[in-house]
Amino acid sequence: MSVASEPDPDRLTYTQEELLASGSYAEPLIANDIRCHGGFVEDGSYRSPRTLHRTPAIAAWKRRLSSEGHELIDIPRALMPPQYPNVEQAKLLLQSGVREPIVRALTIISIVEGFGAMIRDVRVPKLDELFVGGIDGTALAHLRTGLFEAHARDESGFEDEGGHKQMWEAARDEALENPKIPGDVLMRIMGRRQKREKTGPLFPEIDPKLERMLGFMAQVMVVEVFAEGTFDWGIQLLSDSTVSANAEAAGAMVSHIQKDEKPHVEYLRTALSEARARTIRTVDGKEIEGKIVVDEFLHRILHAMTRERQRDQREDLRASLVDAMQVAANPKALLEEFDSLDADWNPPADTGFVSTRGSQAA
Amino acid sequence: MNLATRARRSAKVGWTAGSVWLSYKVPAWLRQLSGRPKRTNAELSARHEKTAQRILALALDMRGVMIKMCQALATRSDVFPPEFITHLKQCHDAVPPKPFDVIREVVERELGKPMDAVFSEFEPEPLASASLAQVHRARLVDGREVAVKVQYPDIEDIIRTDLANMRRVCQIYEFFDRQPLELLPLLTELTSHIGFELDFRREAEFGRRVRELFESDDQVKIPESYPEFSSERLLVMELISGIKITDKEAIEAAGLDPVDVVQDLMHVYVRMILAAGFFQADPHPGNLFVTEEGKIIVLDFGLSKELPEGFGLGLFELMFSLMTFNETAMLRAFDELGFRSKTGDSSTFLLIARRMVSRSNSGSFEGEFTEDMTDELFDAIREDPIAEVPSDFVLVSRVFALLSGIAHTLGSRANVLAAMSGN
Fold first, then answer.
1. Alpha carbons A26 and A44: distance in angstroms, whole number
2. What is the number of H-type helices and E-type strands within chain A?
3. Which residues of A touch B276 (CB under 8 A)?
4. Angle at Cα B75 formed by Cα B359 and Cα B247, nearest 5°?
5. Could you give the CA distance from residue B398 to residue B374 in angstroms, rounded to a whole number?
6. Chain B partners of A34 at a C-beta cutoff of 8 Å?
7. B316 and B423, same domain (yes or no)
8. CA pair distance B296, B293, nearest whole angstrom
9. How many angstroms separate the Cα of A192 from the Cα of each of A134, A189, B271, B284?
């Protein structure tokens, strides 16, 4: 089957080669002298990599889900914690000569994007046997045969073609003119360790590999959804010529990344919604609704990411921002102005998903 | 140390070194003269085996720096063949202890007062004995249980003599051999390491820094040292006990998940090596324990290392490029880490990287330096005369390989990138 064939909007089954196919570009995307993925088509617009068949495939799986009467998972935008520092605060820092926190933030984003490569190592169990009724013609059936691999390649690059890691680095270097990278970025990434709940599996009755896979996918999906705020922040900040040396190129680079990320959110939403709509066979021959499992993970992840983790990260960040401000002419005045640009945020009381197990049941 | 002892030590080292050198060279010359082919790999391996045993016997007889040297050689799989590594690493546990009278004398001299003025109990049988010191369990007069590390008397003299002997042997060897193994740089490195290891205040300082690094992490326990009772030759530390890190049965019996234990252990080492740039470089199972509550205990900061600025990021970029098969980025990372090619042809490093990755279970790099991969890396480097490898990289690879061995014993994987990302 040719990878360059015209996509059929109703097809539900694809090969790995097809899901990884990009088609041809009129012009490649070059960032920091590195050939990156994706490129520009005849009309000059940017087309994301590996979307020739992946985009119509995801659309077809979604339509099928809807036609079967099931809904798509939706993470309410109100749950998305605001960026800290926000765009105005970040601009103020840069205009005051406090560049290090922004360089650090952009570098950390690039490294974290790179970690997306690890999604290819997720162990996928025999889903056909674990879901009642099988999974033919679904996104779930294509996780191991193309979707995870495409996601990994998009985030971290593949062979000599850069991915989002290199694109974020390029945006940072264009905007801030090849800044010196702070030596503590890896320490900041490792950050404050979350206390592990020593409770064993949440669903001991299901295949442990399936539990791990669904938990990981839910985590990645929430991160991807929340990353929308990071992209908006990056575009607004780096496109502003008062703080960005090459506003046009830097802003465009982040908007390309934002465009590339859409299929990630969509395939994860679709596959998790398919799992949620199905029934899972338990290890002792019984059955459990997929909705119970998926919603439990989503509730727990959203609860943690909008409360303790968000609070801890903000506290750590604020301490390092105050330190960094000491290079400004008047640190005290800068801190006051910085704080005046902040906005209060409280997470909604409800995550929108029902938990039925453990201490965080809601 | 008197002149006779010094002469005897010099003679032993000289005799062994000369015999070892001749045992390789004479058969090679005879074969050359008689037109016979070179020794086969099996014949060479048998020779390595005998030589390694001979060096080990000399080290155990002479102790001191000879043991230290063997331990150092055992960490350089990039230079020495596997037979040497297998035998010489026995030096880690094969050192007989010194009598208690000798130890008491050192303790009292260093404290400047009788032992019972500081300790209410002091066990004469050591918990462990190593090349430079031995460790005893004791109790302070205020009731605190402690581990007391006592340096052997005269060890500095012995070391000075042995290092001078070895330097002479290396110089003679390099003079006579047309293609010598570059032993002098290794010896210089060893000399500097031993200098650090002989000063227990430095070990205490490293321990303090690591303790501070994990201050807010309640999953890690680093023993506190007590400077008021310690000196250059005496180190008094908090005594912490736990389950040996490789004892899977006991870990499970304590209700802990071995996979979590590996994850925590990896977090500790990745944080030290990649993020902080200083680390305890001796993660053998005798130095790593886990408490009943699942806290990781790291002991013995004698072999600790400070990495150059940017090393962590460089190593991260190398792992990342290996994972994404990005050869341009791989070359850049090799260069940033200090790899050099004597001919200027950097493609040799790509070949080395490909060989290493080919030994992973999946055929791709997933973030773990397994023992197989590290062995392959060191084989490739040893067989390639044009590659110069930074010693920091060798040490860090060895540490990750040791951790991988522990992880596999516990039925898990030592994934460096996963530990960093928190997955």
1. 8
2. 13, 5
3. 187
4. 75
5. 7
6. 328
7. yes
8. 9
9. 41, 9, 11, 27
- pLDDT 10s digits, B201-216: 999 999 999 999 999 8
Check whether residue B273 and residue B369 sit in a common domain. Answer: yes
Averaged pLDDT of chain A: 92
Domain containing B379 equals 243-423
Interchain contact, B326 vs A183, CB within 8 Å: no
φ and ψ of A25, to 5 deg: -120, 150
What is the distance between the alpha carbons of residues B326 and A162, in angstroms, rounded to a whole number? 8
In a domain, B237, yes or no: no
pTM of the model: 0.82
Smallest CA–CA distance from A186 into chain B, residue: B275
Residue B313 structure tokens:
């990021």
Picking from A165, A186, A216, the nearest residue to B275 by CB comes out as A186
Nearest to B300 by CA among B33, B142, B92: B92
Per DSSP bridges, beta strands B133-140 and B128-129 are antiparallel
Q: Between these two residues, B338 and A7, which has the higher pLDDT value?
A: B338
Find out whether the peptide bond into A85 is cis, omega within 30 degrees of 0. Answer: yes
Ramachandran class of A32: left when φ > 0, alpha when ψ lies in -120 to 50, beta otherwise? left
Residue where a domain terminates, one of B121, B145, B171: B171
Residue A360: pLDDT over 50: no
- pLDDT tens across B129-184, in order? 887 889 999 999 999 999 999 999 888 887 877 788 778 777 777 776 655 566 67
The set of residues, in sequence order, having a beta carbon less than 8 Å from that of B214 and lying 6+ positions away, is B220, B222, B268, B271
B282 assigned to some structural domain: yes
Cα of B300 to nearest chain A Cα, Å: 23
Token representation of residue A188: 């900041």
Burial A329-352 (b: 16+ CB within 10 A, else e): eebeebbeebeeeeeeeebeeebe
Contact state of A159 with B275 under an 8 Å Cβ cutoff: no
Does residue B361 surpass a pLDDT of 60? Answer: yes
- How far, CA to CA in Å, does B113 sit from each of A343, B147, B149, B225? 64, 18, 17, 19
Q: Which residue of A has its CA nearest to B259?
A: A200
Is the Cβ–Cβ distance between B337 and B314 less than 8 Å? yes
Are B394 and B310 in a shared domain?
A: yes
Count of residues making up chain A: 362
Q: Is B142 a catalytic residue?
A: no
Point out which residues pair with A29 in neighbouring strands.
Answer: A36
Of the residues B78, B162, B264, B282, only one is catalytic, namely B282
Task: Tell me the DSSP string of A120-138.
Answer: GGPPP--HHHHBTT--TTS
- If asked whether residues B307 and B404 sit together in one domain, one would say yes
pLDDT value at residue B263: 92
Beta strands per DSSP E along B226-284: 234-238, 243-244, 278-280
Q: How far apart are CA A208 and CA B317, in angstroms?
A: 32
Given B267, B312, B324, which is nearest A193 (Cβ)?
B267
B19/chain A closest Cα distance in angstroms = 50
Domains in chain B, number: 2
Mean pLDDT over all residues of chain B? Answer: 86
Whether B234 and B247 have beta carbons less than 8 Å apart is answered as no
Say yes or no: B249 and B165 in one domain: no
